[in-house]
Design goal:
The relative contact order is 0.22. The protein is of the alpha+beta class. The strands form 2 sheets. A 4-stranded antiparallel beta sheet has the order 4-5-3-6, with helices on one face. The chain is elongated and about 65 Å long. The chain has one domain: Transposase IS200-like (Alpha-Beta Plaits). Helix content is 39%, strand content 25%.
């Protein structure tokens, strides 16, 4: 994993926010293969560019997708998932008719999210605990 730089900045904030996001196809149907898989990755990258977030890593399995995204602090993980799922579902179902006949919707309503940081939680706790000692 290599990223362009560790920190990003806006006018009022310096940040390093990463999220590991996972979501599954409805009924865990194995539909993310060949052309659909390729197109899904294109769509996710398009939406990330539009939102100005960085896709650090992305991989699909036949029934789910993993994304490691670096985001602005103004974007909640739920918002990112909503944007990626909504856009990809709409376009893929327009372009691949078989997705409409096999599934009432492309994605499940749920997702997994984990924050990913450069510094461990233990290091941050020790740093905060030691502030008064210096």
């Amino acid at each position: 994993m290599t990223t362009k730089k560790r920190y990003s900045a806006s006018e009022t904030c310096v940040y390093n926010l990463g999220f590991h996001l996972i979501w599954c196809t409805k009924y865990r149907r194995k539909v993310l293969t060949s052309e659909i898989e390729s197109r899904l990755k294109e769509l996710i990258r398009e939406k990330a560019d539009e939102l100005e977030v960085e896709i650090v890593e992305m991989e699909t399995m036949p029934d789910h997708i993993h994304i490691f995204v670096k985001s602005k602090p103004t974007y909640a993980p739920h918002f990112l998932v909503q944007q990626f799922k909504g856009y990809s579902s709409r376009v893929l179902r327009e372009e691949f008719a078989e997705l409409c006949s096999r599934l009432p919707s492309l994605w499940t309503r749920s997702y997994f999210c984990e924050s990913v940081g450069y510094i461990s939680a233990d290091t941050i706790i020790r740093y905060i605990e030691n502030q008064k000692k210096h």
